[in-house]
Specification:
It contains seven helices and no strands. The protein has 179 residues and is an all-alpha fold. It has a domain of 124 residues. It starts with a helix and ends with a helix.
């Protein structure tokens, strides 16, 4: 197995351990920002470290090979984290999605919120409050499903790892390993 793949898998497993530790000690389980930033940092670090190690050993390479080598760390990381998040929100901690849906239901019980939705969304202005609640809850439930979270995470991390691979490869080529 190539070094970037090992680094990507190792970083993903480290993030999973951190996420599970956070759940075990009840740290930031309802506020996902901390773990999102750790996720982004670990993905960037995995790409940078693996690309750095490969660039140190190679004599000649082109930008495309550097981006490919960066993606060799990013793709396994992305797949493992996305699949884990599906199981996390589906089986391990489904209460997160339930809490978010309950928050929306609570906000929808306020008539001011319904009026605000009617004024800001032209498609909703002629609907009664029960129809608005039903439509908003239906879209909220699909948005907070584990499958939707996995797909969005997969897409976002894939784009992020691609852009990171390109930027880090360019930085390494122009600054760190000048030819």
């Amino acid at each position: 197995m190539k070094l970037p793949v090992k680094v990507g898998i190792g970083a993903a497993l480290f993030w999973i351990v951190l996420k599970m530790l956070g759940l075990a000690i009840n740290f930031s389980v309802d506020n996902i920002k901390f773990f999102v930033f750790i996720n982004m940092f670990l993905l960037t670090a995995a790409i940078a470290y693996s690309l750095f190690q490969i660039k140190r050993k190679e004599v000649e390479s082109n930008l495309l090979n550097d981006v490919k080598n960066g993606m060799l760390a990013g793709v396994p990381y992305t797949l493992i984290v996305s699949i884990f998040l599906y199981f996390y929100y589906e089986k391990i901690y489904p209460e997160f999605n339930e809490k978010k849906i309950q928050e929306i239901e609570l906000r929808l019980s306020n008539p001011k919120t319904i009026k605000e939705i009617q004024t800001t969304n032209p498609a909703m202005e002629n609907k009664n409050p029960e129809e608005i609640k039903r439509e908003v809850l239906a879209s909220t439930k699909s948005m907070y499903s584990a499958k939707f979270t996995m797909i969005i995470t997969l897409l976002a991390l894939m784009v992020y790892s691609t852009l990171n691979s390109m930027v880090i490869a360019i930085i390494f080529r122009r600054v760190v390993f000048r030819n």
